[in-house]
Design brief:
Elements (H helix, E strand, L loop, with lengths): L5 E5 L32 H11 L4 E5 H7 L5 H6 L5 E5 L6 H14 L5 E4 L1 H5 L1 H7 L5 E3 L5 H13 L9 E4 L5 E3 L16 H10 L3 H4 L11 E4 L1 E2 L12 H8 L5 E2 L2 H12 L6 E4 L7 H13 L6 E5 L5 H11 L2 E8 L3 H7 L5 H13 L2 E10 L6 H18 L5 E7 L9 H4 L6 E3 L4 H7 L5 H4 L2 E3 L4 H21 L5 H23 L5 H9 L23 H12 L1
Parallel strand pairs: 1-2, 1-3, 3-4, 4-5, 8-11, 11-12, 12-13, 13-14, 14-15
Antiparallel strand pairs: 5-6, 6-7, 9-10, 16-17
Amino acid sequence: MPQPDLILLHPPSVLRFREEPIFPGPISDVVPSSSIFEIYPIGFLSLSEYLHHHGISVRIVNLALKMLRRASFSPAQFIAGLRPLAFGIDFHWLTHADGSLSLAELVKQYHPEKPVILGGLSATYYYREIMRDYPAVDFIVRGDSTEEPLRRLMEAIRRQGGYGSVANLVWRDPDGSVHVNQMSHRPMSLDFIEFDYGHLLKAAIKYRDPTGYLPFQYWLRYPVTAVFSCRGCGHGCASCGGSRPAFKRVCGRDGPVYRSPERLAEDVRNAAAYTGAPIMVIGDLLQSGEAYAERFLNAMQEAPVSNELALEFFEPPSEALIRRVEASVGRFNVEISPESHDPEIRKHFGKAYDNGTLEKAIAALLAGGCGRLDLFFMVGLPHQDYASVMQTVGYCGMLLERYGRDGRLLPMLAPLAPFIDPGSPIFEAPEQYGYRLLFRTLREHRDALLAPSWRDSLNYETAWMSRDEIVRATYHGALKLLTLKEKYGVLARAQAERIRGRILWSMNLMERISRSKEIDDALRDDMRRLFNHCTICDKRELEWPMGVGRVHPAGLLKGLLSAAG
C-alpha cells in the first residue's frame, strides 16, 4: 500500500468512548452522526484535493467510524502501523476537545518524530492554550480556509525549516518556544477549491480503505451528500461559533466568503453522479442576496439533477422564491430553525421575524414542491423557561394541526448541548444574555466531556433554567412532541412507542446517575446500552426522501476506471 505524505485523522468526541462510563443523551439526536460525532468535516475533501493537485498525497481516515463499527478495532495498533510524513487532526467543534487532543497524544506516543498538525475553529480559538499545555501538538493552522497554508507547511516540513513564512501558522521550535505567524491568508472566494466526491472514491481505492472515507455510520444505507455555498455566516445567532461575530473574532473575517453560484451548481451535479440520495446545500442561498440565489437556480435549471435538494433558510423564504425553487429543481426539502414559538425569545437569540412570516412560508412551501419541511426548536435559549418550552411544543401541535396532516411537516426539539460555542456572542459576554458559563478553558471542556451524563457536560445554565431544568424540559418536551407526532401521523404507533420507551429509560437513567456516588457495573451496562441510540427521536426521522437508487453504478464505474487509470 502506498504511504501518503499526510494522513488526516478524524477522532471521536471522546477517544476512550468504549471504555468510559458516559451517557451523552440527546446531544446528537437531530444530526446524522452518532453521539461520538463521527462525521468528518467536508474541509477534509477540499484539503485533500488541493494538496493532491500540488503533488502532496493525502489519506483520510475516519478513525471515529472505524472504532464505532468494530469493537475490536485498536486505534493504537492502527496508528502504530502508519508511516506518513505528517499527521493532521481536525479540531473544529468543541465536542472533540478530548478526542482531538487524546489522538494527538496517541500519535506522538507511537511517532514522536512525526509532526502533528491541528486545524479548525476550536483549534484556532484555543491555539494559545493548546501550544502551552499540549506538547503533542507541533503546529496549528488557523483560520477557515487553510488549503494554501497547509500546502506551504507540508513543503516546509519536507525541507525541515522555513515555518516562519507560512501564513496562519502557529508552531513550536525544537527548544519549545512558540511562534505565532500573522493570520493573513483569507481568500475572498471559494472558487479556488474543488468539491469532487470522485476524489474520495479514488483515494479509498488507492489506500484500500473504504471505511476510512465513509462520512458517518449509516451512510451506506442513506448516502446523503453536502455542498457548501460559503464559509462563515452573515447572521449573528447568539450561541453559534460559526456566526458572523464569532467568525470576525476567531478568523478575522467581516462576513462570509462565498462559492460562485455556478460552481455550487457544478458541485451538486458532481455529487449527483455518484448517488441518488438527497444533496444538502449548506448555507442560506439568500445570505449573499437574491441575485446569488437566482444565479444558482438558473444554473440548476439549465442542467437539472434527479436528486432531491435540501435547502436551509435562516429566515423564512418569500413565496416568490419558493415558486422559483420549485420551477428550477422540482422536488426539494427545506430546513428552518425558528428556535422558539416566541418571537421575543427568537429575537434575543438573533433571529428577528414573527410567526406570521414563518407560517406564511410554511403554507407556501407545503403547497408546492417541498417534499419535507423540517423545523428545529431548541431548549436552553435566552429568556426561555420550562413553561416556554412546553408552549413551544404546543405551537408545534398547532402547526401540525394546520399544515402537517400529510406527514411532510417535521418539528424537532433538541437541547442546546453540550456547549455554547467559543467565540459566540454568549460565550464572550454571557451576562449580557442572562447566562452563566460553567467552563471556559479547553481543559475544563475536555474534562466535561468525560462526565457521566450530558447534564454534567453542559457548559452553561441560564437565569431562567438550571442545568437540571434544561434536562427536564428537554425530556418532557420530547414526550409531549412525540404524542403530537403520533396523533397527526408523522410517526406510526410502533415507532412512537419505541421512542417513548427510550425517553422514559433515559429519564430513569439520568436519575440513577445523579443519585449514584460511583458508577457500578449495572449502571455502566445500562449507560452503554443507550450510548449509540437516539433518545428523544428516531434518526430515520431526519432522512429526506431517497429518490431513485442509493448509488449510481455508472458514476461509480467511471470513478473506478479513473482511479485504475
